Amino acid sequence: MAKVSIIIPIYNVEPFLNECLQSVANQTYGDFEAILVDDGSTDGCQAICNEWCERDHRFIYFYKENGGLGSARNYGIKKANGEWITFLDSDDWLDLFYLEKMISKISDNVDAVYCDTVIRMDNGVSKISNVRSIFNFINAGIEDRVALGINASVCAALYKKSSWEKIGIEFPHIIYEDTAVYGVLVYYFCSYAVVEMPLYNYRKRVGSIMHLHGLKYKEMIIALQYLLYLAKDRNIFEKYKREYLELCRSQLSPRWRMAREFDAGNIQREMIDFYRKNFSIDDTSKKIASIGSHIAAKVYDGLVLFPDYQNDVYSFTSIISIMSKPIKNNLLLDYVGNNTYRIEMIKKDLGKLWKCNTQKYDYIIVDLLDERNDIITYKDSMLLYSEAIETQCKIKDNVEILDRDSREGKAVWEEAVDDFYGNIKKTNTEIILIELYLVEQYGSFKNRKSYNNLNEIRRINHRLASYYNYIKNKYNVISVKIDPQYCYTDETYKFGCFPWYYNDVAIYILRKKIREIVWSKL
């Protein structure tokens, strides 16, 4: 009997199948069987499978009528003889050392082993998804692993087959069958190990089951409803209700953004019905805005059911800027960049739309990280000299720069803060102040280097600390801090390695802290 059964559901993937199976045959750990489950393919997959079975006795081919990916996975589990099982989608492929590294983590008290994933785009761009490594970084319990269900794939994992059979969960015959069971599986596979390496290559392609249906929010709602049914049926829903809400939000929110331009009204109604039915809430229960750096915007994005960046997010801005007078942008700036998000934020900052927006908010998330930047003064108005302006605009000559460290700079900032909080005090809005500073290190969680300009970073952070203390000593705010061990820049971040960018672990922890405040009554 083989140590590991690799279950490979196959359906009309002829152009990719050889690469997938070759990655299995090349494994440095050889004690495995490859269960090839042909789910009724109509292309040349059967011939490819037969060729591999003739070439390598470890490959075993099964043909069945088409029933969907969930059906094929269930079939493969029943045919598997290994002590451990792992799933490989037939358009993906394994790293050469996948099995060797995963098997090395097995011990008597482990019933699942996870690894990270490399997302391979059609255009050649790749991105590492390190959600599984986050398990180790934060010593994730069941709560965290449910909440991190955005990576709700059963792939990139090794499962003890006896434990899987004891749980007695089968994949439903629907799209997003992984999502429909993952949030319950993690409850049972609670003794786990993690290989902190990206050993699974996930092909993100046009035409795949996942991305052909990228806008099919209804199918995702069906999958999530199935998941919540399982959780309720097994009496675990109420204990992890907040985490299941976060899992659902993480899956539905991106689809809301993708699909709303086609049928926004119906989509939102159906999603609100889903949230009301399962969690007794809708998006009108908490109204949230964010002001400050892009980090605050990313935290906001993990809190609301229907993100509205146009009205509720003010990034690349400062309190000085939003409280000054509007500026006609054509008098001050020429746009030379093509980042539409950053340009939109610049235009909002120029128009001082925050002051024009009279919507009432329950919470406003504020951070002062972008207060590190100087201020552009133009006639009787002010504008943050933000990273967005620096990268997307050419500033005209008729401006002056206000030195942040000058006496005048400090006085202007304090006056703007008093004006801002004076307006807030007239409402019942609560301010959540995220105390963010420039980080001193970059790299990865376990391997970091210090930036070369530490003296400059610390000088700016000293100023930011005085800003945070001014607000906390004078106004009633909810202060949120993050453990310094999580404060570093991920050197692989696509926008560059700068001390004002944080990593995914830090963002997750900040969201978790603030969710406990905003969702406290759930």
From TrEMBL:
Residues 5-162 form the Glycosyltransferase 2-like domain. One of its GO terms (molecular function) is glycosyltransferase activity. Coiled coil: none annotated. SUPFAM superfamilies: Nucleotide-diphospho-sugar transferases. Keywords: Glycosyltransferase, Transferase. This is Glycosyltransferase family 2 protein.
